[in-house]
Design goal:
Layout lengths: L5 E3 H6 L1 H10 L3 E5 L2 E5 L2 H7 L5 E7 L5 E5 L5 E4 L2 H21 L1 H4 L9 H10 L2 H6 L1 E5 L3
Helix pairs in contact: 4-6
Length: 144
């Protein structure tokens, strides 16, 4: 990271209110503490950064007429009588998974087969509400 862009952690502590105000209202703030480099930003900016990450699901119509949605990037699937109900159940499972992942982030974030889940986890956490997660579920026809 370019030294001109970073703020020393000691200086950031001294000006903490200003640093937060700048991060929320102006631009992300890059902070360096010894070997650690951090970025402080608003949730709104994080939501913008995560926009390209959609919850893409394959949609299957079962023999009983129910709908199964299977998330493509994360191994989660839900079945319900209708597509709308399946989306809600899938959104609830996404949020539950995100909360579980975050509660043990040190473990799951280091797992090689789970690292690519991180943007989806963050997206689910910042969207927060089931309705907002439902809006981000994009369905494609799957083959039975």
């Amino acid at each position: 990271m370019d030294k001109m862009l970073t703020i020393n952690a000691t200086d950031a502590r001294k000006q903490w209110s200003l640093i937060i105000d700048n991060a929320v209202r102006i631009k992300p703030q890059f902070i360096k503490r010894t070997r650690d480099e951090l970025v402080l930003s608003s949730i709104d900016l994080l939501i913008e950064i995560l926009k390209p990450y959609k919850f893409e699901a394959k949609e299957y119509t079962e023999s009983d007429g129910s709908v199964t949605l299977s998330l493509e990037k994360i191994d989660i699937a839900e079945n319900a009588p209708t597509l709308a109900e399946a989306k809600v159940k899938l959104a609830e499972s996404i949020r539950d998974y995100a909360l579980d992942f975050y509660s043990d982030f040190e473990f799951w974030g280091a797992a090689p087969n789970r690292k690519e889940h991180i943007p989806y986890i963050l997206k689910a956490l910042v969207l927060d509400k089931i309705e907002k997660i439902v809006e981000q579920i994009e369905c494609r026809a799957g083959e039975n």
